[in-house]
Design a protein that fits this description.
It is a single chain. The chain is of the alpha+beta class. Among the domains are: about 110 residues, Immunoglobulins (Immunoglobulin-like); about 260 residues, Alpha-Beta Barrel (TIM Barrel). Helices cover about 20% and strands about 20% of the residues. The chain is built from 15 helices and 37 strands. The strands form 9 sheets. An 8-stranded parallel beta barrel has the order 18-21-24-25-26-27-28-29, surrounded by 4 helices. Helix 14 runs parallel beside helix 15. The radius of gyration is 34 Å and the shape is elongated.
Length: about 850
């Protein structure tokens, strides 16, 4: 008897049959009548008009079996077929013997069972007509309970549906024997019971042993005279275990990316693709693609009990096959074809199909990096992040302004970032997205690296080469919302599956997107599994979580009456909070040394504190308050800055409440905000000097660093995703000088423990003078864990050279000028302190020693304490 898996019985309404118009002719061999015995198993009539229900209460399991359809790449397809996508049929799927255009198709082989007569299925059990009707019209709720091999009195019946088949037969593979002479295959004709392509073959009475999934193949000829041979997809067992289903329902199956989606597997010795998808409200789910002419009647999936999971194994289907899911919703209506939520690869927009991909073939060469990362204390290490949008960092204007590929980026971007001294690259979302203008933040293909720049393997090589260059890789990740595109997650199975049904919870008012239902176990499981997927399969070193504030607050960007309070009457999104905590706990628990970074713009407490201390569990949090106050201060003309002095000092009141990253990100140089250079006041010289001062303050202030691409050489125009950075500006000394400064600041920051080792408590920072507002001068000390690691930093925020400026210092000795942003090398006026000074035994600003400095205009001066100098 065929093996079964628990199935979810459903009753659904009829829908319009789609696909190629059925042939009206009777098969040539229909005259051959075969004697059959009545089936022992009763198949009750459907209790619902138009839809076939499961065979019985005890047989609500579907047979555990599946197959791949073979057809020629040149196979003709009706142009009027509404489901056909104009993509080439995949190679490697079909084994075909083509008939000559000028000759008749060769006859099928002689049937060994031709002398074994049979009768049509109708004379055996008229009630089976409703089952056949359900199959050929795509309405059968339990295809594995009817298709494939099924035991009858004295033998087996094998039923299959191939709409393009003119005639077919079953080729019984001979059992393995020790005899040297191979046994020949036995062929049994299949009777075409419906012109739409429904066949049944009755095996000989002597075929009483159980049929293995590989013990037979279906052979036949199409309407166009081309032959095919394939395994029966409805003869293969389930792949997902009951334990898999249980964990998914509990929301604790954190490697569902290994189970759901499309996976190349070997099942019972046959290589093929296992498809599985979560669609609990669907009444029928089929996988469609070029391999079945986008006909959803051909490969309906089995429902796995009450789990909401549907699955099928299609033997011999190859990597590269394009597919989607065809779903009938709970109202019986056909939904738009859906891309696979777990697809590892997607078609390049505007196409939206999913692609079968193998992520197991790449050979990584970053074991040294991963070992080092696992023991790294990033809180006490330099973290300098270069934020990049891959599609606009650099383009090829002579080749239709195309993007660089992943491999071209590896050749050009990695050496550039390494030369500038950055420790990490952070990429705007590389997950597949339909709209270029979203920069990736309206993600649909959460498990697919975008095809804009190449294949998954090529992206793996990019990450691998970053690691070999000692550069970490951080991805922007968007679990806060998703777009409404019809082929995506929105109403995936005809219900509000991933999103809330109530728009007061499920619709984002600013972005026109949908909000995840974090209270649903399977949704949390989907997102956490996705986070782990990138850390696992692509060796990603960190995730920067976008728009965390919109997740934490139920009333985010909503007016009164447009949101629903939580169970305690508050505005906190308790389910999203629990999700973020779980995600951080699991990610840090499974992958040592990775980073999770929150873009959180409010005063929510303990974002970057461990969950066991009541925090959300992030490694770092973006300091949006620092960024806004700093840019506001620098936007004022220097003559007015003394009135805004508190804005540049205020950040130190809360600097150690979180583990902060100080971001000058893409959000600050787009949509009319201007580039950082053009945010600066004054004439051109002052704008460049102010920008150099800003960067000096950035690297001296406690916190990790982030700068968006291009700002390292002071572009004049704000960023656009549609064009390359303005690389031609580097021919000018002023722009090249800013780039030199960034390089030297990174080198100073990474080499001096005082600038990075104690970023997150007061032991690493000490004010010298925070109150010299009249002169717009700011001074403080940065310290490392070693008492001898001490750097004094002074900022002059006016274009006035201030000679004889006395500054108190805590220790006697020599203070070497290790960086001056006014140096001529950076495009400045070259005012300085002759390389350094010895401290005088004269107290100043409450300290026993002092320096008498010349403060360069609009500049930052870094002075390192040298305890003893020969």
């Amino acid at each position: 008897m065929a093996r079964h898996c628990n199935a979810l019985p459903t009753t659904i309404q009829p829908h319009r049959r789609h696909g190629r118009a059925a042939e009206s002719t009777v098969p040539r061999r229909a005259a051959l009548q075969i004697r059959v015995a009545r089936s022992r198993r009763s198949l009750p009539l459907s209790k619902t008009k138009g839809w076939s229900s499961s065979p019985s209460a005890t047989n609500r399991a579907t047979s555990t079996q599946c197959a791949r359809w073979k057809h020629p790449r040149h196979l003709a397809i009706a142009r009027e077929h509404s489901k056909i996508q104009r993509t080439p049929l995949r190679p490697g799927i079909v084994s075909v013997s083509e008939a000559s255009n000028n000759s008749e198709a060769p006859p099928l082989p002689e049937h060994h069972a031709a002398a074994w007569p049979s009768k049509p299925i109708a004379s055996r059990d008229p009630r089976l007509h409703s089952q056949i009707d359900a199959v050929v019209t795509g309405r059968h709720s339990d295809p594995f309970g009817f298709l494939g091999p099924h035991a009858i009195d004295g033998g087996w019946a094998i039923r299959f549906f191939i709409p393009w088949a003119e005639e077919a037969q079953i080729s019984l593979q001979p059992p393995a024997t020790e005899s040297a002479a191979p046994a020949s295959a036995q062929a049994v004709e299949a009777l075409k019971l419906r012109p739409e392509g429904f066949f049944e073959a009755l095996l000989p009475a002597n075929q009483t042993s159980a049929l293995a999934s590989t013990s037979y193949k279906i052979q036949g000829r199409t309407h166009y005279g081309e032959s095919f041979e394939l395994y029966d997809p409805y003869a293969f067992p389930c792949v997902l275990t009951e334990f898999d289903l249980y964990l998914m329902g509990e929301g604790r199956h954190y490697d569902t990316y290994q189970k759901l989606g499309a996976h190349l597997v070997t099942l019972e010795g046959v290589r093929g693709v296992q498809f599985a998808v979560w669609a609990p409200s669907a009444k029928r789910v089929s996988v469609v693609g070029d391999f079945n002419r986008w006909d959803g009647r051909v490969h309906p999936l089995r429902a796995r009990g009450s789990s909401g999971i549907w699955e099928i194994f299609i033997p011999e289907l190859a990597e590269g096959a394009i597919y989607k899911f065809e779903i009938i919703g709970p109202d019986g209506n056909m939904l738009p074809l859906k891309a696979d939520p777990y697809a590892f690869r997607s078609e390049l927009r505007p196409n939206t199909g999913s692609i079968v991909a193998n992520l197991e073939n790449y050979l990584w060469n970053d074991s040294d990096w991963l070992l080092q990362r696992s023991t790294k204390n990033w809180f006490q290490s330099p973290v300098s992040i270069y934020e990049v949008h891959l599609g606009s960092w650099r383009r090829v204007p002579e080749d239709q302004n195309r993007w660089l590929s992943y491999l071209e980026l590896a050749d050009q971007l990695i050496p550039y970032v390494k030369e500038l001294g950055y420790t990490h690259i952070e990429m705007l979302p590389v997950m597949e997205h339909p709209y270029d203008g979203s920069w990736g933040y309206q993600t649909l293909g959460y498990f697919a690296a975008t095809s804009r720049y190449g294949s998954p393997t090529e992206f793996m090589e990019f990450v691998d080469r970053c690691h070999q260059s000692n550069i970490g890789v951080i991805l922007d990740w968007t679990p806060a919302h998703f777009p409404r595109d019809a082929h995506g997650l929105a109403q995936f199975d005809g219900s509000h599956l991933y999103e809330h049904a109530d728009p007061r919870q499920g619709a984002h008012p600013d972005w026109g997107t949908l909000v995840y239902n974090y209270g649903r176990n399977e949704v949390q499981n989907y997102l956490i599994s996705n986070a782990l997927f990138w850390l696992d399969k692509y060796h990603i070193d960190g995730l920067r979580v976008d728009a965390v504030a919109s997740m934490l607050y139920l009333d985010y960007s909503r007016k009164p009456g447009e949101w629903i309070p939580n169970q305690y009457g508050g505005r906190e999104n308790l389910q999203a909070i629990e999700f973020l905590k779980r995600m951080n706990e699991v990610a840090h628990g499974k992958f040592l040394g990775i980073l999770t970074i929150a873009e959180e713009s409010t005063a929510w407490p303990a974002v970057s504190r461990p969950t066991y201390l009541g925090g959300l569990g992030f490694s770092f949090k973006w300091n949006m308050g620092w960024m806004n106050d700093t840019l506001n201060y620098f936007s004022h003309d220097s003559v007015h800055r003394k009135y805004e002095h508190n804005k540049i000092t205020f950040s130190m009141l809360y600097a150690f409440t979180e583990n902060f990253v100080l971001p000058f990100s893409h959000d600050e140089v787009v949509h009319g905000k201007n580039s950082l250079l053009h945010k600066m006041p004054g004439d051109m010289w002052q704008q460049f000097a102010n920008l150099r001062l800003l960067y000096g303050y950035h690297y001296a202030h406690p916190g990790k660093k982030l700068l968006f691409m291009g700002q390292e050489f002071a572009p004049r125009h704000e960023w656009s995703e549609a064009r390359s950075l303005d690389w031609h500006l580097l021919q000018w000394d002023s722009h090249r000088g800013v780039q030199n400064l960034i390089r030297d600041l990174n080198r100073l920051y990474t080499s001096e423990p005082a600038l990075h080792q104690v970023d997150f408590d007061w032991h690493g920072f000490e004010w010298i003078d925070a109150n010299d507002a009249d002169n717009s001068v700011l001074s403080f000390i940065r310290r490392g864990k070693n008492p001898e690691d001490l750097i004094v930093v002074v900022f002059n925020a006016t274009p006035v050279v201030r000679g004889g400026y006395r500054l108190g210092v805590p220790q006697p000795g020599y203070y070497r000028e290790i960086l001056n942003t006014d140096a001529a090398h950076y495009g400045g006026s070259n005012v300085g302190n002759a390389g350094g000074q010895d401290a005088l035994n004269e107290p100043a600003q409450g300290r026993p020693h002092s320096l008498v400095l010349t403060l360069p205009p609009l500049a930052a001066t870094f002075l390192k304490w040298i305890p003893s100098r020969s």
